[in-house]
Amino acid sequence: MAFADGDSSSSSWDSDDEYQKFIQKMNPPRITIDNTSCANATIIHVDSANKYGILLEVVQVLTDLKLIVKKAYISSDGGWFMDVFNVTDQSGQKIMDESVLEGIKDCIYKSIAPGSCFLPSRRRAIVEPSSDYTLIELTGTDRPGLLSEVSAVLTNLDCNVVNAEVWTHNKRAAAVIGVTDRKSGLAILDAERLCRIKERLRYVFKGRSRDAKTTVAMGVTHTERRLHQMMLEDRDYERYDKDRANANPIPMVSVVNWLQKEYSVVTMRCKDRPKLLFDTVCTLTDMQYVVYHGSVDTEGPEAYQEYYIRHIDGSPVNSEAERKRIIQCLEAAIERRVSEGLKLELSTGDRVGLLSDVTRIFREHGLTVTRAEVATRGNKAINTFYVRDTAGSSVELKTLEAIRQEIGQTVLQVKGHPDHPKSPAQESPTRFLFSSLFRPRSL
């Protein structure tokens, strides 16, 4: 494969020169969709004037639309960006609905068109103002019961959790939590109260350790993108559990230099899973590397990714320490989303203190949360938890049944336990057996 030499000047990524703006305006993105060339995938072609971070923006859109990238071919040398993605829906089928296809094209175009609001990830400016809720970002040392303690503090401070995502990796934890005032249902604006919330949460998140960080912002952000940034900044890749090798197969990541073309070649092999492409591209972008060429293949159980990269200043990897850091950071990016634990899905009427009560029950039964996704849709709470025994053992069936008895048999569903019977596909709402815990409280 022969590649043309790219522009090695870092100014090409940062320039606000009117000529660069003119080039982008005269060459708007072209997104075409081909449903005839491939028998088992829809092919999306993206052509655009090149700019820093554009690959991540496109991959982020595909990920947010819940499309599965089976193959990808990347070329962004010089001033032009050309990408081809073979995608399917979550069931592995081609996308045939014309309205859906038009929606995909529209979303990609809006994300990369001239005047689009995206900014390079390295500037960390991905928060947009919002009055709907207040964002709280937390990083610190992971420990059993941490989410329970955090949610209890927020409840005691009259905060309602409307959405949250929590990741843990290598004994580190990061969380992005959206909260509103319990009484008004709006974002919290009072500076003194926000300061009090920050201090209380920093104290809880710090635990016995001295390194914890709490940030409060008014706005909305791409949560998963922000979590990658937070854990990268927290250097979770440097902290390895003693039993890391036994928990999951370690990804195979290599970095070598192609001196003739002054590229560094990154290759990755690991078990395929959803959002893997987003995780690796996000991390390379946040580490200030530019992907000039690449290919992705996820046909089968194993995923293969190959990227020809340079640092944003135009240089390839120039030291052994830098090479090792890239490998460690990509391994961490792949592992962060790998859920160690049993999946539990909770669906019930939302109320203040719900998250605190649920996580307290988990803690009281000896379970720790390794990852969590908390969302509110209308008046309903839709939450997903990955839990495991605090001793590292698999969760016993009797423990699960005790928790479900306390929370509600149809409120909490168990996914993937080998000894747990599958839940009925659907039950009438009149048969839901709610415990008193989940009856709405008078506010």
From TrEMBL:
Highest taxon above the source species: Eukaryota
Pfam families the UniProt entry points to: ACT
InterPro entries: ACR1-12 (IPR040217), ACT-like_dom_sf (IPR045865), ACT_dom (IPR002912)
Protein function: Binds amino acids.
Domain ACT intervals: 135-208, 343-422
Coiled-coil blocks: none
GO molecular function, one term: amino acid binding
Keywords: Repeat
Name this polypeptide is given: ACT domain-containing protein ACR
